[in-house]
Amino acid sequence: MSEQQVVTITEAAAFQIKDMMKQNEEEESFLRVAVHGGGCSGLSYGMGFTPDAEEGDIQLNQYGIPIVVAKNDAPILKGTVVDYKQSLMGGGFTIDNPNAIASCGCGSSFRTKTNEGTPENC
Q1: 10 vs 85: CA distance, rounded Å
Q2: Residue 61 phi, psi dihedral angles, 5° rounding
Q3: Cβ atoms within 10 Å, residue 38
Q4: What is the pTM of this model?
Q5: Tens digits of per-residue pLDDT, 44-89?
């Protein structure tokens, strides 16, 4: 699997992430994009800063942001685009995952054809 096909960060998202890294004094950290069990549909996304990559992580660098994805999460996230949208109601990250076959109304929980995760009652 090509590393560039796992997760793509748009320029708008990169600008926001860099700003957050600076505000939180995380300029030397990695951005970890992850998948966790739970949520209404069984899986949910996670993004956060981590000081170190773990063994087996796929490492990317987009717009000067070092990104890590766990090897086990990579097939679920393959082709995912992380964007940042600004509106009159505020802004927020959006995640477009071509592998998701179902998602809940909140937009942060999903499942894939091969991974149902651990759905919770919402």
Answers
A1: 10
A2: -145, 115
A3: 13
A4: 0.78
A5: 888 999 999 999 999 999 999 999 999 999 998 999 999 999 877 7
